[in-house]
Inverse folding.
């Protein structure tokens, strides 16, 4: 089974930065925790979800706020201008828009797998089970505010269930979300009146809907191409660097692709095999130098370089330091 790498659309971090700036938090220190500069993030760059743990841990420590994700989420601007919004607006009803959004939810984030059910007049949106509480609180708030905006403020939450420890205070959440909140549940869920699903969209347009669905399909296709990076890294981690048999043609064969197809797929996500290889070698080199006592010759071998001088030149280009200087600094 392939290992899927979860990621978020760049607009999520862009909105988070705006909210933190509004709250006058130390964004420089918080963003430095994931090696990002203190400046407005690029909305077009998709971000690995794996950094959320470090990011929100730093945010909590720096702000001294146990509910920092909840409070940042409350200050986020309304989610606008993405294909998800267009799908909603051009659908006949709120319910149709929501179903289409769930179909294409990975465009915004594939860190959740949300689903919609309804029973006895109550609609239930489930799948809020992310390991990072602050990130999830932000995401829930983003959705609630978006649903209110897209429904012209008709959307109202009846209650929210969270799989959080009981020692947290539900009152903190209720003060922001203005509805009953129950902790200690087996999964996270948002409940609302099912009649809202029949709410007509004032901007419904069948022809535009087809265009927007095509846009969403294209974005999902691009997202699938990003999985190629993980697949290539997994191949590089299997030991082939030591063998020297890792040129693009050999990698393409392992992926079951034509080399030309692989090159085109990677160009679609604005990268190349050479870039992926260099980034993987850099990460591996840093890890080996910082955390092991392997000799330089052995590290040269493990990273697939032909000779120490080639490795040293590459490492200096990546880090601005020689391998020896880097190791001494990290292991000091």
């Amino acid at each position: 089974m392939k290992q899927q790498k979860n990621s978020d659309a760049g607009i999520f971090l862009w909105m988070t930065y705006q909210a933190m700036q509004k709250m006058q938090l130390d964004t420089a220190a918080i963003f430095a925790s994931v090696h990002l500069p203190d400046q407005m993030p690029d909305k077009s760059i998709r971000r690995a979800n794996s950094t959320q743990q470090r990011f929100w841990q730093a945010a909590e420590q720096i702000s001294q706020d146990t509910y920092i994700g909840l409070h940042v989420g409350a200050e986020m601007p309304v989610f606008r201008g993405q294909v998800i919004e267009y799908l909603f607006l051009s659908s006949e009803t709120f319910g149709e828009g929501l179903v289409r959004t769930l179909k294409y939810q990975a465009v915004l984030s594939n860190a959740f797998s949300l689903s919609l059910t309804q029973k006895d007049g109550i609609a239930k949106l489930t799948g809020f089970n992310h390991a990072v509480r602050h990130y999830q609180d932000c995401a829930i708030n983003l959705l609630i505010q978006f649903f209110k905006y897209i429904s012209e403020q008709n959307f109202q939450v009846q209650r929210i269930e969270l799989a959080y420890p009981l020692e947290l205070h539900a009152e903190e959440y209720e003060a922001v979300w203005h509805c009953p909140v129950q902790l200690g549940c087996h999964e996270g869920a948002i409940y609302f009146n099912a009649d809202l699903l029949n709410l007509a969209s004032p901007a419904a347009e069948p022809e535009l809907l087809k265009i927007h669905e095509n846009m969403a399909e294209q974005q999902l296709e691009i997202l699938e191409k990003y999985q190629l990076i993980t697949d290539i890294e997994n191949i590089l981690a299997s030991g082939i660097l030591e063998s020297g048999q890792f040129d693009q043609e050999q990698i393409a064969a392992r992926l079951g692709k034509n080399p030309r197809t692989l090159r085109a797929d990677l160009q679609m996500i604005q990268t190349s095999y050479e870039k992926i290889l260099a980034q993987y070698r850099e990460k591996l080199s840093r890890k080996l130098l910082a955390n092991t006592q392997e000799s330089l010759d052995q590290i040269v071998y493990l990273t697939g370089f032909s000779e120490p001088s080639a490795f040293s030149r590459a490492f200096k280009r990546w880090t601005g330091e020689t391998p020896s200087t880097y190791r001494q600094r990290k292991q000091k």
